[in-house]
Design brief:
four-stranded mixed beta sheet, alpha+beta, 58% helix, 379 residues, Serine Threonine Protein Phosphatase 5, Tetratricopeptide repeat
Length: 379
C-alpha cells in the first residue's frame, strides 16, 4: 500500500514539473520570469525611466545598472547583457558593474563567467552581502556546494539572520544531498516572517520529496535549478539595506494594531523602495504597500483619514529633497488609490524632505529614508 502511494505521489509531483523520483537530471534553459500585473507595470515604468536617464546622463553608473537590473528582473536578461556590454570600457573596474554583469551571466546560463565576474566584484566591494549570496548561487550552479556555503556564510556574517540568504543556504544544502539539514535551515528562515510564502513552499516540497525516496530531494532541486537560480537572485536583490533600525512594520495585522483608534501614537514608519533618484516604486515595495492597503481598508480604520508622509536623508540640496519626498508620497498614495479603491479624501500626501530626520546623528543614513503613515480624524 505504501509503495502504491509512493508511486502516485511521484506521479503527482511530475505533473508539476518536479522530477522528484527520477535519477535523470534534465538540463535547464534560462528561466522564464512570471510576473504579476503590478510587477510588470513597475518594471516597465522603471525601464523607461532608466532608458531616459542613460540618454541624459550616460556617465552615471546608477542609470546603467538600474536599467540592466530592471531588464533582468523583467526576464529580459539578454537585453541587460547588451546594455552592460555597451558600457564595459566605462565601468569594468567598478565592483557594482561586475556584480550585475555576473548575475546576468548566471541567468543566461554562463555560470563560469558569472562566477568569475562575481568573484572579481568581491575584491572591489567588500561590504555587499547580496553579492556573496549571488556568488553562492553561482557556485551552487557549478555544483561547488562547499564553496557556495562559504559564500552564504560570509553574506550572513554581514547580514545576520537574513531570511533570503538563509533560504538560499537551505537550497544549497538540499542540492548537496543534505536534505535533513536543508529542512532545518529552511525552518529557521521561515521563522523570521519574510518571504514566508516562498520559503514555506520550498520547505513543504523538501519534506515531501525527502519522504518519498532517498534521492528525490536533491534530484528535484537539480531539475528545477534554473527557476531556483532566478528566484534566489531576485529574493536577495529585493532585500533592503541590512540594518535592524527602524523596525518597519510590514504585516497588515501589525499595522492595524498600531493605527487603531485606541493606539496612543497612531503612526508607523514603513520602508518603501524607490528607483534611484526617482519616485518610481521598486517591485520590492509592493508587498509592504499591499499590506498597508489592507490595513487602511480594514474594519473601523476604513472610516478614518490618513497622512502619507515622505522623508529623505540629508544628502543633496534641501529643495531637491523636499520635492523628491513630496513626489514619493504622491506615488504611494496613487498606488493605494488605484489598487485598493481608497477614496482620495481619505489619504493626504505630504513631503518633509530632510526636515524630520529619524536619526539626526546619521543624516545620510538609510534609516531616514522612509514613509510615515499617521491616522488623522474620522470621516
Amino acid at each position: 500500500m505504501f509503495k502504491l502511494f509512493k508511486i502516485s505521489a511521484c506521479a503527482a509531483l511530475l505533473t508539476l514539473g518536479l522530477a522528484a523520483c527520477s535519477e535523470t537530471i534534465v538540463p535547464t534553459s534560462p528561466p522564464v520570469t512570471v510576473l504579476s500585473s503590478s510587477e510588470s507595470i513597475a518594471f516597465n515604468k522603471a525601464i523607461t525611466h532608466f532608458e531616459q536617464m542613460v540618454i541624459k546622463r550616460p556617465g552615471e553608473i546608477e542609470a546603467v545598472l538600474g536599467l540592466a537590473r530592471n531588464l533582468r528582473w523583467a526576464g529580459r536578461s539578454a537585453e541587460a547583457a547588451q546594455i552592460l556590454k555597451a558600457h564595459q570600457t566605462q565601468f569594468d573596474m567598478d565592483g557594482r558593474y561586475l556584480s550585475e554583469l555576473g548575475k546576468v551571466k548566471l541567468i543566461l546560463g554562463n555560470s563560469t563567467e558569472g562566477v568569475m565576474f562575481l568573484e572579481q566584484a568581491t575584491h572591489k566591494v567588500t561590504d555587499d552581502w547580496r553579492l556573496y549570496s549571488a556568488l553562492g548561487i553561482g557556485l551552487d550552479n557549478q555544483k561547488n556546494y562547499g564553496q557556495a556555503e562559504v559564500a552564504y556564510r560570509k553574506a550572513l556574517d554581514m547580514c545576520p539572520d537574513d531570511p533570503a540568504v538563509i533560504n538560499n543556504l537551505g537550497i544549497s544544502q538540499g542540492l548537496s544531498g543534505r536534505m535533513d539539514q536543508a529542512i532545518i535551515t529552511l525552518q529557521r528562515a521561515l521563522s523570521y516572517g519574510s518571504h514566508s510564502d516562498k520559503i514555506k513552499r520550498n520547505l513543504d516540497l523538501f519534506i515531501d520529496a525527502r519522504d518519498l525516496c532517498d534521492s528525490c530531494g536533491a534530484t528535484y532541486l537539480k531539475t528545477g535549478n534554473g527557476m531556483i537560480l532566478a528566484a534566489g537572485l531576485m529574493s536577495t536583490d529585493k532585500e533592503g539595506p541590512c540594518t535592524p533600525e527602524p523596525k518597519y512594520t510590514a504585516k497588515a495585522p501589525v499595522m492595524v494594531q498600531k493605527l487603531a483608534p485606541k493606539a496612543a501614537i497612531p503612526s508607523i514608519n514603513i520602508k518603501v523602495y524607490f528607483e534611484f533618484d526617482s519616485d518610481i516604486l521598486k517591485p520590492e515595495a509592493l508587498g509592504v504597500l499591499n499590506n498597508l492597503g489592507k490595513a487602511l481598508t480594514y474594519g473601523e480604520l476604513n472610516n478614518y483619514r490618513f497622512q502619507i508622509a515622505g522623508h529623505t536623508d540629508a544628502v543633496g540640496p534641501e529643495a531637491y529633497n523636499q520635492s523628491l519626498s513630496e513626489r514619493r508620497a504622491q506615488s504611494v498614495v496613487q498606488y493605494l488609490r488605484i489598487n485598493f479603491n481608497i477614496d482620495p479624501a481619505r489619504i493626504d500626501a505630504v513631503g518633509y524632505g530632510e526636515s524630520q530626520l529619524l536619526d539626526p546623528s546619521m543624516p545620510d543614513g538609510d534609516v531616514n529614508r522612509r514613509v510615515q503613515v499617521t491616522r488623522l480624524s474620522k470621516l
